[in-house]
Design a protein that fits this description.
The complex is a heterodimer of chains A (90) and B (154). Chain A is α+β, with helices and mostly antiparallel strands and 90 residues long. Chain A has helices at 14-20, 36-44, 49-54, and strands at residues 7-12, 24-28, 61-64, 67-69, 80-84. Chain A has a single domain (7-84), classed as Ubiquitin-like (UB roll) (Roll). A five-stranded mixed β-sheet of chain A has the order 2-1-5-3-4. The longest helix of chain A has 9 residues, at 36-44. Chain A is globular. Chain B is an alpha+beta fold and 154 residues long. Chain B has four helices and ten strands. The radius of gyration of chain B is 16 Å and the shape is globular. In chain B, helix 2 (56-71) packs antiparallel against helix 3 (102-119). Chain B has one domain (3-139): Molybdopterin biosynthesis MoaE subunit (Aldehyde Oxidoreductase, domain 3, Alpha-Beta Complex). Chain B has helices at residues 12-20, 56-71, 102-119, 139-146, and strands spanning 3-6, 28-35, 39-40, 43-44, 47-52, 74-82, 84-86, 91-99, 122-128, 131-134. Classes of the chains: A alpha+beta (90), B alpha+beta (154).
Amino acid sequence: MIAPMATVDLLYFARLREALGIERERLVLPEGVATTGELRAWLAARGGAWASELDARRQVRMAVNHDLAGAGQRLSDGDEVAVFPPVTGG
Amino acid sequence: MPVRVQTEDFDISAEILALRAGRSDVGAVASFIGVMRDFNEGSGVTELTLEHYPGMTEKSLQQIVDEAHGRWRLQDALVVHRVGCMRPADQIVLVVALSAHREEALAACAFIMDFLKTRAPFWKKERTPEGERWVESRASDDAAAGRWLPGDPR
């Protein structure tokens, strides 16, 4: 059975937005990418700044639909997924 | 229990008076004001730009305030956080907590700030004589937030 294609909106903030040179993109989840952690690894595999910024050793936070998400959170069609460095407000 | 994200400055007295309006059950007003300083990590800082994640920022601030209401008996609480461009000595953030007694108001105020600094999606970029740089998060902020979590030894 073929699973329906899930599309997510990806948003990048602060240092990551600048280093990656992108603010947002719409992505059809590739095969084998079902969670935030898998998505991060897939994005890092784009190479260049993606590889260095999203390397597993770097502190990167992700949020799904405006809630902070752990690496194991499952993604669904229409999700808004944000990728950003640790926060520094206040 | 309002939360606001805005570019404009805020008037501390007006904010506190508005929050207290019509209440006579408040015995303690605790507040915290975060202000921009002109130095950080060994450099002079001449300008600060605050970025946020519209939608998520308001939601996370509201969740933090709701959590404070669950932990302490508060009559009300307020968070105002500015975004955009700021100069040294400018006000950045205001937290106010109202309670019958000072212990709860002071604790709630500290809790809201500790969680804001580690959970709410804001990012600071500062201009120094050496150029612009993104502010790095501090381990001490994580430790400050951790003291409110169960199992923390302190």
